Protein: 3-hydroxyisobutyrate dehydrogenase
Organism: Tateyamaria omphalii
Amino acid sequence: MTDISISVTGKAGRITLQRPEALNAMTYEMCLAIEDALDKWATDAAVQLVVLDAEGDRAFCSGGDIAELYATGTKGDYAYGQKFWADEYRLNHKIFHYPKPVVSFLQGFTMGGGVGIGCHGSHRIVGDSSQIAMPECGIGLIPDVGGSLMLALAPGRLGEYLGTTAARMNASDAIFAGFADHYIPEAQWADLISTLEMTGDTDCLVEAATIPDPGPLQEAMADINRHFHGVSLGDVLTTLKGEDSDFARDTLKRMGRNSPLSMACTIEVLNRLRGPSLTLEKALDLEYRFTARAMEHGDFLEGIRAAIIDKDRAPKWQYADGAVPPMAVSKMLMPLGKMALKLGGTGMKIGFIGLGNMGAPMAANLAKAGHDVTGFDVAGTTAEGVVTAESVGEATKGMDIVITMLPNGDILRTVANDVIPAMKPGATLIDCSTVDVESARAVAAQADAAGLGCVDAPVSGGIGGAAGGTLTFMAGGTDAAFDAAKPLFDIMGQKAVHCGDAGAGQAAKICNNMILGATMIATCEAFALADKLGLDRQKMFDVVSTSSGYSWTMNAYCPAPGIGPHSPADNDYQPGFAAELMLKDLGLSQQAAEAVDADTPMGQRALELYRQFVEDEGGKGKDFSAMLPRFSDRGRG
């Protein structure tokens, strides 16, 4: 293959990219050839290290060769791209975990796919010509090839800035951001490679390295942190547009070239990655969720058309105004089920107790992700891909993780009495039920006494979130137990927050749902009032959803049929979250408030209204947003 040279010279495995006329862009065949060489050298005692370099002085590797991806994608063949990315990510993973030193010499441009092969090794060398960047948002992708891992680890909010602006890093800034290790003048590289080949020892690199002067990004960190600390693209754009400065104007100009959907998903991915459970595997999984959908549902094909096919530099992006709906982001980052990225690992053995409306799709998503799931439900319900057990004990014995999704605290305590003695030492119990705080703490104490980890992790997101893998988990328990559970939360949901010790997850859930219940009542009251004032519902939504009345119950779960995103109101109030479940959660909030002597008059009033609605007004079996027709039919008396 003329595009790449692969050989063993002395004690070094040598890989040299040989497409200088194409800025050494990596083809699919080059990717497979590199992987094959690494596999052979991993167990070859004669090869003590690997050296990656490239011909020419303009680029180490400017990215992946995307022409074929465009050609196949425009014909409706998305499988080729999905396989390309899966195989490329597998190579990135192997370089990151390679058992021998991997030394890369990164002259000129190192971008996109070049980061994937050049920036995951053990010794990453940069020089005066080095320019490293993640420009994927400019073609409708997100920073991938494991680049999101480095962005999430970068100082402050530099990761968000680099990912959404495609800003280039010089040698100093690349080291500062974690994309490189050593600055060495490029005139010394040839001699250093000869030394590596002769000795098989990397000490010469440390001896030759010097410290470069700080780069421009380091000097801009105060501006970057100030503007990119928000949790969404909208937050970032709001702060930038609100400041009259050279930095803000330049940054908005850079971001204005890129896909808003890609930038929004980039920020969300970095939010999900940050924390103690950050791994390359998690980063690659999230990246693949996006790239696997990028041709069909994202802006990738349009981005390539504008950049390299028609070259008009005028892409017609989705959400061109920058207002990317949260559901659009969630859709791109949902678990892929059977299509999930596979890096050669093995799944966990999981027992799942409670396969109801929420539990069944949660268990199914775990099974689709490659885990060995055994489930049990007293009603005999099953879940796709889940082995059915005949008893709680059968679903529990020998499992690495046991998950429960149960109706109330009394049932949880009863089930725990059967589950905990049957679990193997060191396993982890994850309770996703919504129960009282005291029951959660009692079960956690019981699990701890048995040598088990335990996490109380109630969820928010309803049946749709359970099916789509977009739940939010509010978790309580030790750091070790949370870390054990976190990979599963990433499959079943889009966010998991470690709220504190045992019971903290339940405390967060009941506080959240007290807000939700009271807010839904206020939203329904406002629509009913608008009706009687003669205000068009759509006009009210258009005003409130973009002004100070903004809320989740208005913008994402509007109780008015035909207004806003699709919600249970559009399905005759068939429950996404049943009114009786809201009544239960409000009851838990007031029980907790009474226990700690907290004054919660709005929560108490919301409880009374939902009790009246469910028990006396036919609200049982309807969605909790069905309060709207209830208020519409009533007068002030």
Q: What stands out?
A: The first helix runs from residue 28 to 41.
